[in-house]
Amino acid sequence: MNLNQIILTEQQILAFERMHKKKARFFVDETLGPEIAKIIKNLGWDTVYIDDAGMDECSHESIFSFAWKDDRVLLTQNQDFFLDNFRFPPHRNPGLVVLPDTSENIARLENEIARVLVIIGDYRSAYKGFKIYIDDGGIWTVYNYNCSCGSFHKRRMKFDHLGRIFELEENQS
After folding, report:
1. What is the pTM for the complete model shown?
2. Which terminus of the chain, N or C, has fewer Cβ atoms within 10 Å?
3. Per-residue CA distances from 118 to 2, 43, 62, 105, 123 (Å)
4. For 76-92, how does the pLDDT look when each residue is reduced to its tens digit (9 = 90+)?
């Protein structure tokens, strides 16, 4: 596996900010719990917890639909949202982040949530239609559907402690 650092020019960063600068709103499901929703809300983010939306007994399809209709990035630990494009179609995706199930390492989960807030939080429109899966090792698999060419696109990225971004390339043998 090769790591290639992604380096953006100042012009690219400014263009991205101009195009996508809009604060995200979040929807936290039961897999993360009300404490995580409260922490995110206390950090100043518009956050709704599943119980607060009256959806604690609803199907996953209803949860996904609510997030889409209310324009909220869905935060979960349920991998089905990421894996099942039939039930959770990319073109009706409000933005989805599947966080690692790190019940024995809460600091790891907190670090990934902080990274999500920094990377996605201020750039809402850039991540609409994206599904992001963060594994236990901190690797982000970013998946989206490109309507113009009718294909799915997948990238795997890792962030280091300095905030640098590296794209992972699978070795072709």
Report:
1. 0.89
2. C
3. 25, 12, 28, 21, 9
4. 999 999 999 899 988 78
